[in-house]
Amino acid sequence: MFVEMPDDQFNTRVADQRVGYFSQRVTDLSTYDNYPQRDLINKWRLIKKDPEAELSEPVNPIVFWVEKSTPEEIKPMVVKGIEAWNLAFERAGFKNAIVAKIQPDDADWDAGDIQYNVVRWSSSPRPAFSGYGPSIGNPRTGELIAADIVQEFNAIKRGYNYRKLWGWTPENDPLEQWIISLTIHEVGHTIGLRHNFSASYLHGPREVHDKNITGNTTISSIMDYDPINIAPPGLKQGNYFPTEPGEYDRWAVEFAYKPNLTDEERSELLALSVLPAYRYGTDGDAMGTPGRI
Ligand SMILES: [Zn+2]
């Protein structure tokens, strides 16, 4: 299967070390500049239907399909996880930027078809991850062309074990929150975001169980590897997992996806990076900490 190269009308965005995106390095071979390289953010082509509107639907939304093999009880959780990213895209001026659809049981296309972005499931004998979300970007521009997500059946079993261990109600269900959180994380990779392992600095151990403070999150970025959030004895249980992108994620999406970002807007956004909610550290930072291997 071949995919046609996109046209050259894509608006690139130069990456910055303070905001965690996968990127493509391009080199201007004809410049006298001593730094001829630019890292271009990996992102989807989103164009406002109404360019004048502060909030507009895109001409073409990002579409993710939920594989038909997904257990019935899990399907709505995956849909919520995919569409939760709309909260972040609204910050960038887009309404309904990402749409979830369920693959019909009688679909005549395969979930492996590169023309469809699909949240798929695998049952591996020794799963190393709960999921992963690779994507294909245009090496010349960073434009994302295709993505697929594979999540492990083991993660679903883990969610049912959380229910057994910690109990659940329809209002506070660790299985639902875990699957939503996992899906938001993996979709986050496919819209370009890298890990952010600094996200749990946001709240203290008491505040993290106060929903008046946390809202539907627990940490500043869904791109962390947060374990289940269990209240110590004597404290009312808050959210087990975040079910929305965090403040850092929304800021990062605005940085990459807001159309026609001016230099001034770019500087103002980047200036926020010193605040705790926008703290960022990725794989290299986490794995390279002294005392850890
Ligand atoms: Zn990840």
From TrEMBL:
Q: Where does the EcxA zinc-binding domain lie? A: 177-286
Q: Where is the DUF5117 domain?
A: 2-49
Tell me the Pfam families matching this sequence.
DUF4953, DUF5117
Offer an example of a GO molecular function term for this protein. metallopeptidase activity
Report the InterPro entries cross-referenced here.
DUF5117 (IPR033413), EcxA_zinc-bd (IPR032534), MetalloPept_cat_dom_sf (IPR024079), Zn_MMP-like_bac (IPR034032)
CDD domains per UniProt: ZnMc_MMP_like_2
- Going by the entry's taxonomy, the superkingdom of the source organism is recorded as Bacteria
Recorded protein name is EcxA zinc-binding domain-containing protein
